[in-house]
Design a protein that fits this description.
Elements: E1 3-5, H1 6-12, H2 18-26, E2 30-32, E3 35-36, E4 43-45, E5 50-53, E6 56-59, E7 65-70, H3 92-96, E8 100-101, E9 110-116, H4 119-126, E10 134-140, H5 146-154, E11 169-174, E12 177-182, H6 189-196, E13 201-209, E14 212-213, H7 214-217, E15 224-226, H8 229-236
Parallel strand pairs: 9-13
Antiparallel strand pairs: 1-4, 2-3, 2-5, 5-6, 7-9, 7-15, 8-9, 10-12, 10-13, 11-12, 13-14
Helix pairs in contact: 1-2
The structure holds uracil.
Uracil (URA) binds near residues 105, 106, 188, 189 and 190.
Length: about 240
C-alpha cells in the first residue's frame, strides 16, 4: 500500500513535469470514477488506482512491462536515424517514463520485443548468465540443407567472437525456413551465423522468449500489450 498526491501520481505515470500535471488537474482534465478531481494535493492509494486523463482511462503501474509485435522498418535505438523508433508505437507518456527495449531487434526484424522502465527487469532479461532461449524464424536465400542445420548446431566462427557460436536448437521448417533457438544475443547474431554458414537471411522474426510465445499474445504487427506477473514468469523459464 502506498499513498501519493495526485500530481505526483500523474508525474510518475509519465504525464509531464509536476507543474504540468498540477495544471492538468487544475484544468479539470483528470477524473476518477467519473468525478473530476481538481485538488492537486489529494492523496490517493496507488494500488489498483484507475484514473482518467483527457478522457482516456489508465491504471496506475509502478513499472511498465510491455510486449510489442515489432513490425519491420522500426528501429530499437534511442535515437533512431533512418526509420521511426519502436517507442513511437506506444502511448506518448511511456517515453517520459524512460521505457526502453530489452535488447534490440534489427530494423528489418519483426516479432516479439519486450519493453520496460524497470532497470532490474531489463538487466535480468539481458543477462547472458541466465541463458534465456530466444526463438527466431529465419527465411533463407539459399535452400536449407541438412549440412546447414548441422553447421549451425555445431557452431560457426564469427568475426570478433573468440569462440564459435552455436544454435541450441535448429529445425528446418520448409525449403527456405529455419527455426533457430539462441541463448546469446550478439549483434546481428542470426544473420551473421547464417552468412558464416554460407547462406543469407532474407527475413527474420522472433517468435518466443523463454516460454512466452508471440502467438499466445494475439498481437497484430505494431500492437502491444502489458505483461502480467504470470506472463513475466514465463520469460525466465528455460
Ligand atoms: N539476430 C539478428 O541477426 N538480428 C536480430 O534482429 C536478432 C537476432
Amino acid at each position: 500500500m502506498s499513498k501519493q498526491t495526485l500530481e505526483r501520481i500523474l508525474q510518475s505515470q509519465g504525464f509531464g513535469t509536476r507543474k504540468w500535471c498540477s495544471q492538468l488537474i487544475a484544468d479539470g482534465e483528470v477524473s476518477i470514477n467519473d468525478e473530476i478531481i481538481d485538488d492537486t494535493r489529494l492523496s490517493l492509494e496507488t494500488n489498483g488506482l484507475e484514473f482518467n486523463v483527457y478522457g482516456e482511462t489508465w491504471q496506475y503501474r509502478e513499472h511498465l512491462y510491455i510486449a510489442l509485435n515489432k513490425p519491420a522498418d522500426y528501429e530499437c535505438s534511442r535515437k533512431p536515424s533512418h526509420h521511426p523508433g519502436v517507442l513511437s508505437l506506444l502511448p506518448e507518456q511511456f517515453a517520459l517514463r524512460d521505457v526502453q527495449p530489452v535488447g534490440r531487434l534489427d530494423h528489418d526484424t519483426t516479432g516479439l520485443l519486450l519493453m520496460s522502465d524497470d532497470g532490474a527487469f531489463i538487466h535480468a532479461q539481458s543477462s547472458p548468465k541466465r541463458h534465456i532461449p530466444k526463438v527466431y524464424v529465419a527465411t533463407t536465400h539459399e535452400a536449407v540443407t541438412p549440412q546447414l542445420v548441422a553447421l549451425l548446431l555445431k557452431g560457426v566462427k564469427l568475426h570478433d567472437e573468440p569462440a564459435p557460436l552455436a544454435a541450441v536448437v535448429c529445425n528446418q521448417l520448409d525449403g527456405h525456413q529455419l527455426e533457430i533457438v539462441l541463448e546469446q544475443g550478439k549483434y546481428h547474431q542470426v544473420k551473421r551465423m547464417l552468412a558464416a554458414a554460407g547462406n543469407h537471411c532474407t527475413a527474420l522474426r522472433r517468435t518466443r522468449i523463454g516460454n512466452l510465445s508471440l502467438d499466445d499474445l494475439n498481437l497484430a504487427e505494431g500492437e502491444w500489450c502489458y505483461l502480467d506477473e504470470t506472463q513475466r514468469a514465463l520469460l525466465a523459464a528455460p
